[in-house]
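Below: protein 1.
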Amino acid sequence: MSIENLKNALPDFAKDTRLNLSSLASDETFTAQQKYGLLVACAIACRNETVRAELIEEAAPHLSAEALSAAKAAAVIMAQNNVYYRFVHLASNAQYKTMPAKLRMNVIGKPGVDKLDFELWSLAVSAINGCGMCIDAHEDILRKGGLGADQVQAAIRYAAIIQSAAVALEAGAA
């Protein structure tokens, strides 16, 4: 079990992260596709090879090929969009808000999985990447789609725990 491998790889000073990873393993907030897609998208977004490898190994048996690809696509498209829209949001010059992005984003319209699942993964990745505009946009779609505040908050908890694991591994190696 790969969450176990990841927990075992964490340094002793990351005991809380170890405990939090255990809570993810037993979490039943989401459907299997939502949960394991969150693991994949967040693992890729945190940019740590060990976290990515272990969590994709954990998730792969629970996801269809389409869902695994869509979770990866959520991390990739948000890597692009979070940089662009964070700039637009933070730039003092309001002119950028009126300009077309001119970025391909077709996967958002046709992710190959349930739209709300893709939005959930995109929200979590946007939290890792720190894009307030994207967080607001994805959260709005999720809430309108019927997800409650508990589910939105749980998705962000996944992002926080997975990011914490990546930072703990890097700190342990330093």
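Below: protein 2.
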Amino acid sequence: MNKFFGTGVAMVTPFHVDGQVDYDGLKVLVEHLINGGVEYLVVLGTTGESATLSREEKKKIFKLVAEVTDGRVPLVAGIGGNNTYDIVDQVENFNADGYDAILSASPYYNKPTQEGIYQHYAAIAKVARLPLILYNVPGRTASNVSAETTLRLADDFKNIIGVKEASGNFDQINQILRDKPENFLLISGDDPITFPMIALGAAGVISVIGNALPRQFSDMIRLCLQGDFKAAQKGHFNLINFTRLMFAEGNPAGVKTALKQLGICGDSVRLPLVQVSSSTAALISAELQKIQA
């Protein structure tokens, strides 16, 4: 599972102004990220606005990214949702060519019990042909995957290889890292706290800001994983303001603004998301100039 150490990027989905998927922009983004030195790509996670995409659009995006990547870095497919039977069907029928794992967000809105969350993931794990990474993001799902549930799943299913942990709860993070199976990966889902999470034993991050600044961010993460926290600290501090701005008016609107300013792709998002305000866009521009100076 060493392929998932370091920086994975939760890729945005570029759109044209009319809301259609910008497939040419997607190709440019893939090259930008690979050239930026990231370790792997996550396609159609929540940052990719997957909730607003049709099944046909998703199939085309999965296929295109695999073709453009052409094995140069590992790929993770985001397949998650709150309808267990539908997710099982999608996972069972997923064209896995070029993909190395599946990232699946815990069910949103339903607010299941811990037993419901366990049974949801158990149903997916039983049909998954690729390794499965859990995704705990209570800020979006309105329910937390407890440390006990994560560890139970890790112990019961060998094809559940890790968790993207975005609870921000260090008591929970500590418990998972202390009690997890040796090869089970805890991956940060929060850019701002990845540095201390790696110090505790996290395997890296699945990042949002890495879309815009893959080189700067992945270099910092590699220094952390090498144990050179003093050198990494400078990069971490340099990115604090930029990271805050990326989430000031929601994700992925902030990082898409940065990508537009970098000439990678446009900043269009699909409703109900909207673009950031002109004042926030100006702050992002100023911070980018400072980082790149």
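The chain has one domain: 2-229.
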